[in-house]
Write a structure and sequence with these properties.
single chain, 3 helices, two-stranded antiparallel sheet, alpha+beta, 148 residues, four-stranded antiparallel sheet
């Protein structure tokens, strides 16, 4: 399971190193996280969102489903006390799922758990990239375009 989550982070990392050697942070203060479990969330987007897979619009206040390990981005504190407002950062391809960029709130404890899972996977991916660099040696520099 951890390998499955780490793979996208590894690919993003390799692509970042290969394309943009000094890539800036995602955004000022932006935090990525993995949703810790499958859950139904309440859409907070003004005007709702259109779900392509279901060919229907979900209005603000309606619910949709997000799968475990979905990538989310922290927006800031939630409107409800003890919550964090987040945005779904990837398209849902199955029926009944949430559309790209769905905004919703998570309890602070759930968000903390989600963030910890992301950090764990990020560390695993960084370690794997370092192992690949060591194994490839000079070929890594050729791959990334880095010169010594």
């Amino acid at each position: 399971m951890a390998i499955t989550r780490a793979l996208p982070v590894i690919i993003i990392g390799l692509t970042t190193f290969a394309v943009v050697p000094s890539a800036p942070a995602l955004a000022d203060g932006a935090e990525l996280a993995f949703l810790p479990s499958t859950m139904t969330v309440t859409l907070l987007n003004e005007g709702g969102k259109y779900v392509v897979v279901d060919m229907k619009k979900i209005e603000k206040g309606e619910t949709c489903r997000l799968e475990k390990d979905s990538v989310i981005v922290k927006i800031g504190p939630g409107e409800t006390s003890g919550t964090t407002k987040v945005r779904y950062a990837a398209p849902q391809l199955s029926s009944g799922g949430c559309p790209l960029l769905t905004e919703f709130e998570l309890p602070d404890a759930t968000y903390s758990e989600a963030r910890a899972e992301f950090e764990k996977s990020k560390e695993e991916a960084s370690n794997r990239i370092e192992d690949i660099k060591k194994k490839l040696g000079e070929k890594w520099d050729e791959f990334t375009g880095a010169k010594k």
